[in-house]
Amino acid sequence: MHIIIWIIAGALLPWFPFSWIFNRLLVSAPGAWARALAVIVLPQLGLLLLLKSGAWLILGQEMPQALRALALFTAILYAYRAAGTRDVQIWARFMGTSGLSLTWLLIGLLPGHWGVQLFALAWSIPAALMLVWAGILTRKTGGSYLGLTGGFARVLPRLSVLMSLTALAATATPVFPNFFALLEAMESLPLIWMPLLLLVLLLWGWTVGRFLQDLLFGIYHGESLHDLSVGGTWLGGLALGIFALVGLFWGGIWIIN
Amino acid sequence: MDYQLTLGDRLKVRTMIYVASEPIPRFWPMRTFIHHNPLFGLEHLPFEDAVEEAGKLFHGRGYLSRSEYQEYWQAGKVDEAALRKYLQAFLVKQGGALPPEVPMEHWLWSLLTLCKSEQLVPKTDWLNGAVLHAALHGQGLDPDTANQKERLQEILAHKIALDGPVYANVDRLFGTDIGSTLDDLLVKSCLDFFDEGQSAWQSPGRKQGFFTAWKEVAQHNVRFFLRGLHLRQLLESEQTPEGVVAHILRELQVPEASWQKYITRQLTRLHGWAGFIRYRSTARHYYWAEQYPADLTDFLAVRMVLGMALLQEAVRHQGCPANAEEIQNFVHADPLSAYLRLELYTGAILPAWAQQVEDMLARRKRPGFDRVAEQYIAAKTRWEGERQARNLLRLAKAMGAEAEAQLLGMSPEQLDQFLNILRAWEKGEGFCWLRSMESHYIKSLVNRINIPHQQEAVEKRPFAQALMCIDVRSEPMRRHLEAIGDYQTFGIGGFFGVPISFLEYGRGTEVHLCPAIQTPKNLVVEIPAELELEEEPLYGALEHVLHELKSSVLSPFVAVEAVGLIFSLGLIGKTVAPLTYHHLHNKLHAEKPVTRLLLDKLSPDQADSILRAVQRAMIVRALIKEWNVPRDQVTDDDVKELREIALEHVSGPSALAQRMQFSAQQEAEFIQKLRDTYRVERHESSLQMERLGRIGFSLDEQVRYISQALLLIGMNRNFSRFVLLVGHESETENNPYESALDCGACGGGKGLPNARVFAAMANKPEVRRRLRDKGIVIPDDTWFLPAVHNTTSDAVELFDLDLLPARHLLYLERLRNGLSAATRRSAAERMPSLGGSEKLAQDPYAAAAMALRQTHDWSQVRPEWGLTRNVYAIVGRRELTAGLDLESRAFLHSYDYRLDPKGRLLETILASPMVVGEWINLEHYFSVVDTQHYGSGSKVYHNVAGRFAVMTGNQSDLRTGLPTQTVLKDGKPYHEPVRLIVLVEAPVAFAQRSVGNLVKIKALLGGGWVRVILLDPENEYRAYVLEDGAFHLQERCATPDSQTILEEIA
């Protein structure tokens, strides 16, 4: 029974090979906002399923090493795939998948529901924001594929800043909550897992580097574009700001404890 | 494959490379920055055609954008009548292609003045009248499959040219990025080889030449090995660089008929480096080129070997075509796939399709690919039509409802014609704007210029006369100097008509101080007038140690903690108190001693005596250093004997060796060292004798240079007590472009040596006696005094005052006062435009203090405006411009046609100073219209490369033009880009005759590289403007100038 729950949960809280279903679900959502909502809601549903059914603790006791290995494999696989894509929407999905799969590292470790759910949320929120930005970019340029016409830094400065910060948030850059969440997870893991986790971080660094390179640099040579409105920028900035503040709060608590 | 190249083949390749490099302008090292026309190699073409050709070669644009011209138009700086005239002429050329109900003039005028976008009709693949018609009426369009296939072939043939670089075509079809990787590797190789002392570790084997040295290093280069590049086989294919080039071109199966074009494209890809190597390989007396030879054949060979290796790597890993023929086969076999690849990898694809196309291309099997490709083409066609419809409707809306109705009422065929006319207009629009802007400036000058009085008043002897450079920065100084007192000024090329090769005291290499188009025959050597102790001063030695530490690669690991603080003192001093720091720093340095110039030609005996003296000194030094024998133990005869042995006049053993009991072996080693290290050697002696023969000027030469210079500027009488020869230079800190602010007429060098040479010659009694015979009477109390104008601070400093006759000292105070007053007035005029407060215009002392600070402020990216905003060159008497505020925008060359019956002097002016002015003007022009390709981008990202140029970031092509900080202000052009407007005061027939004698100048004027106005003094000073190959009368009228128009708009 737990195995079935585990499989269903693997499709909602992404986890190879069922992460494929998670991604299909996201793609099939109609519009950027729906995709953003889905990337937040689906993992939470998966978690609830695991937690409420008790599978979380039992699976953690039965096969913790295999689950952790699979989780790290999923994170590495999707980080690598994200490095190879230039489509912002796909990038957001892959990075979301890569980060969310790390939630499985905590299996059997965290007794409180809230901690695990917040951990998942720390990866979902930047992915959701990036999906929203991808939608806006598609509306402005016809697609969310980067690097075709040079960098957007000059023509879409506001949107570019928001996308850059979100990309940094998606890759667990310090001050954002997922960075502290990751530290917390690292602390609770055996030392032997560290090289793989560091590999994930390395891949994220590479991925975000490529993303920013395609997004910002190069002389733009496309059609003239209208940037994001000031109000929209404030709103996006506010969301990111709150997210960063939560990160600092989380970090503070973690350090104090 | 062994192709066995014959000597003929090799020569053919070298010739091809030579011809292919012709369009690439030479790039002088930045130590002597030469303002040059970036399109110099295309000057044989008319300006408009050259700009178009350069667009293909260098990918640069030749005109400002439409919206920038519109801003000038709104500011009243474009002659609207001229613009309309060019528009009408264009329409006449087009004929009645469209029905009369479409008023094309109205459409095009609206496009000119209302449309803000860069291009109304952008380049498209599929757009035609039918597509546009459908888009305008919101209708669908049935795919025309037959036409589509034909069009697809056309597109592919155009975009994947058979004679295009193979790697570039592979990049476009496979997204391999070989081009930029190749550039990176090549730039790295060039930096290693061409370094001129910046790197602490030198590349090995450089004396063998670029290709040979690189070849040896490349075979052991770990970086290449790690990249998987197999160079060995390629390098073993041929020994010579031209052989390698031919071998690779054949491997790539480039048709031989296309080699020339192929080579040109290869060389123009990094045209900064190619231009530098081109300059270097042909420069005379260029130390680094003599030591480490290299030419474009080497450069091309290295490029082609690396390119081939990268291509082979891509073939191995990605299975892409390996040569030109395979590429064509690949394209013809699957044109749809080739098109989609092109779209994706060149970034032209519709963003919505990019991911899908990328996914499909990545798959080995592609079911349904053709269908997707056709859908994409349909989408692209629709998108192009809709975008064009949007652009046109936007313009029509701005024009009025009638225009919209006209647009919607056109048939597909009419729309086709309409688009063609718009395309043709947009292609030539920039040139029309440019000419209209120039027309404004031409009218403005003609209206402002003074008409000299026919009868000259009795000449009063001025207190002082000053010969200043024609440089635009001399204009305000001249104006202010004349305004404050009894001064008369003349404009002359800053080398004062005396081209010299100058060997400065303390420097090891010669610099050519004359326009870059000349090669000086005479060498001038600066020697100290006082004897110096050999020992290095303590501070100098310490500084030497610190510099050594700074450049060492190990320093960061071992010395930061120990000596880092010492560097920080300078850093803080330069930043917080630049002037104080500069004064302190100068106090610690030994001052340059008083020097004299070796000016007179040496007789063979004198030359021989000098050579012997130098060789003896070297032998004495060698004895101390090599044998530790002090001078007091050596007699003159010993030294003489050793010299004779070294020169192989006699054989050893020497008396000294016997006396000191050195073995024969030791003596032989010492003699060899004398020959190798100290250059006491027979062949070297004859070379040095030849060099000594270049020193100085004969008396005839001195008289010729002085008389020609004085007659050139119309100065043959009424000499005052002081005749100042004011050379100019700039003084800035932390500025790789410093020499760009120095004297262009001195080849980017400082003008003082030429001024000193001229003054020394002109003060000689023998020269004056001969000049009197030529009708130039210089009074005995006239003294030619060299001076230097620091264009950053506007200070004028007098030189060689120790030679000044005692009777002149009485007037020195007045002279200095006058000069410093002019300095302050000029600074007050300039400083507000350099970021100073507007109040500085009323406070000359504060303005001068700010200008002085600019010279030592190392954070200053724009210490002065230099030659920016230059627009005019006026060749004529000072009366034409006396009292006129030309805002530092005019090159002023004094000239009096009445002293030039044969027109030879005018020919000299046109052939040299005018060409220098043209180069300066076009360097600025192109640096403004395309700051990235012809300019050098922002200074902020510049790094000095090898001490001879700058690059953007740590690795790039050499940036050859001017930085944005020099030509832009607040992101807008500060330099108004128009071609140089040359006004010559001379009778029309006379000037035409002079121009006719100069083939190059005729081509320049005829091709429109400069605009010419002739002011005919024998025809009531009527002005004639050269346009479209003929002179047209330009009436003088009192039209309001741009300033007034601006005020009216406000």
UniProtKB/TrEMBL annotation, chain A:
Protein name as annotated: Uncharacterized protein
Source species of the chain: Acidithiobacillus montserratensis
UniProtKB/TrEMBL annotation, chain B:
Domain of life, per lineage: Bacteria
Protein name: DUF2309 domain-containing protein
